[in-house]
Amino acid sequence: MCATLCYTRKSMIDIYKKRPILTIITLVALLLLPFLDVMEVTIMEARNFITAREMLTDDHWILTTMNGEARYQKPPLPTWLTAISAMLFGVKSIWGLRLPAVLMVMLLGIMLYTLSRKLTLDKSHSLYNGLIGVTSLYIILIVFEAPWDIYAHAFMLVAIYGIVQLFKNDTISWGYGLLAVLGIGCSVLSKGPVSAYALLLPFLISYGIIFRKSTTTKKWVLFVGVLIVGLVIGFSWYLYVRYADPETFAAIASKETGNWTSYNVRPFYYYWSFFTQSGLWTVPAFIGLLYPYLKTRVSNLKVYQFTLLWTLLVVVLLSVIPEKKSRYLMPVLIPLAMNTGFYIEYLIRRFKELKDKRETIPVYFFFGILGLAFIGIAIAIIYLSLTETTMRIPVITYFFVGVLVSIGVLLCMRLYQKSIGHVLIITIIGLIMLVYSAGSLRKQHMITNPAYANFEMLQEKGVLEKGIPYYSYQRTTPEIIWSKGGTIPVIYHLNDIEEDAFYIIAPHEYEHELTLKKNQNTKGYTVVTKTPLRIDVNAEPSDARSHKDRKIGYVYKLVK
User: Fold this and answer.
1) CA separation for the pair 63, 243 (Å, rounded)
2) Taking CA 109 as the corner, what is the angle to CA 107 and CA 110, rounded to the nearest 5 degrees?
3) Helix 20-32, helix 123-134: angle, nearest 10
4) How far, in Å, are 56, 77, 142, 272 from residue 151 at the CA level?
5) To pair with 142 at 20 to 30 A between CA atoms, which of 155, 214, 236, 504?
6) CA triple 313-319-321, angle to 5 deg
7) How far apart are CA 537 and CA 108, in angstroms?
């Protein structure tokens, strides 16, 4: 029996090591696809999804818009991909709209593996790097926030792989040169020069310092040519928009560049806790940064020096920009995953031989805490089901919770046996089960706000009439526009409209002002709504942290 179990475990490890790319794709699919639509649409997602919707409904593929107004703040490539996915799955399918971002996570994981292989790391070590990357906290979360960072950095990683091929090959490979050009071009078409600054530039500096003897002037000249062509492709959209709509483009560009020095300004050290963004891998990521400790333990010192320098340079370059947000740190997770992989590989290779408690205690502590956390979270969910009478726990959640408890126990057992290879696999499976436990519970309770009411619900009840146009008073918000399913023109005065009848939506802060005017005649119109209809697209109740007043609107009907 014991021999059978040992053989089964060995076979499992062999399978995932023999098919590394398939392993990465499968992991991302299992982790993200089943519950891709359970999270509430965020303000960033709403903006991007509206732009994709208007590409399909209004044919605004080049001169992109949001709510019918020019939106040139972000290049269009990710929105194109989102719109194409909406064609296939429907413009109302949140799952379909988020799918392209998941494919970018898969691409990022694959490129982490292939780049590691090209840097002479072995197959298993390269796979660890890819697995760490795609299971890092913010790389997962960014799928549900829908900023275009994941596209920009995944495409730039493709370019970096092509550039490494150009640097390392003795002969010029035009195929890899084309790959680098397309990667740079697609990255710039996804989020401007952000990734060129935050990922490519620190890579070039690190590679030039660590591998300076293996590069030649001729290869650097070739790279400059590749860079120029890639940037030309990437900036082609900006040049066209500047030509087609110069005044609007100039106004938006001025505002965006001003934000770099005046918006969300944070101190230089704001990013110094960057390794915590890796979530599950926080402790290994931190230890992986301890060069004096790891320099004599890693399997490839030169590549380790390169990934360490690359990681630190990303943090430094991002820190010198006054505007800072936590999601801007996403590119550091790419070299950090490769750097962390050295420590994980060392543990898998040598942990059974270690005697020094200074080395073993952090490992026991970290993975032991993870195992206990899996068990504790499972118990918390069961306790919630027994004490919270208003929350029904689906049967499938109990199954996932049971598996999660088993994984926590098994992780502790394998840790006690010093089998770090198994611990790594079990930890990742535990993460999947944790997502499934939370996701299945969330799917059962996606909307817990008793006051939730969107446009479609009110139309089905007959309290909002179809075919009557909508306007928004003073301003509107992306979540309200997304819920409406179409544009909501903004007006600043009630006499700006020429319609026989129309609805006007007052944002939460303007509701009182409009209420004072509801019995007044304005240019032949009368506000006939005695009590305004309340639109509330908050999925969570009013006492929840995620509940926002901007997701609330009050609808009045005006007629002649």
Assistant:
1) 11
2) 65
3) 20
4) 21, 9, 10, 24
5) 236
6) 120
7) 33
**How far does CA 228 lie from the centroid of its chain?**
28
Task: Place 524 in a pLDDT band, splitting at 50, 70 and 90.
Answer: low
Dihedral Cα 108, 109, 113, 118, nearest 10 deg: 0
What phi, psi does 76 have (nearest 5°)? -95, -10
> For residue range 291-332, what is the model confidence (pLDDT) as tens digits?
999 999 999 999 999 999 999 999 999 998 887 777 788 899
DSSP alpha helix (H) spans, 90-122? 94-118
**pLDDT of 44 above 70:** yes
Distance CA 80, CA 457 (A): 30
DSSP state, 40?
A: P
pLDDT digit string (tens) for 99-110? 999 999 999 999
* Contacts of 185 by beta carbon, 8 Å cutoff, 6+ apart: 229, 230, 231, 232, 233, 234
Q: Grade residue 164 by pLDDT with cuts at 50, 70 and 90.
A: very high
For the entire predicted model, the pTM comes to 0.91
Report whether 536 contacts 550 (CB < 8 A): no
Residue 365 CB contacts under 8 Å (≥ 6 apart), including other chains: 283
What are the residue ranges spanned by the domains of the chain?
A: 2-264, 354-444, 455-559
Give the DSSP H or E segment for 433: helix 420-444
Q: By the 8 A CB rule, do 345 and 324 touch?
A: no
Instruction: Report the alpha-carbon distance of residue 102 to residue 110 in Å, rounded.
Output: 13
Name the DSSP letter for residue 502: E
Q: What one-letter code names the amino acid at 149?
A: D
> If you average pLDDT over every residue of the chain, what do you get?
87
Map residue 262 onto helix, strand or coil: helix
Give the distance from CA 407 to its chain's centroid. 27
Q: Could you tell me if 258 and 119 are in contact, meaning their C-beta atoms sit under 8 angstroms apart?
A: no
User: How far apart are the two ends of the chain, measured CA to CA in Å?
Assistant: 84
DSSP label at residue 532? P
CB 526 within 8 A of CB 559: yes
Cα–Cα distances (Å) from 39 to 110, 284, 509, in that order, read: 26, 29, 26
Residues in contact with 339: Cβ distance below 8 Å, sequence separation at least 6, in sequence order? 285, 288, 289, 304, 307, 308, 310, 311
Residue with the two structure tokens 């903004």: 490
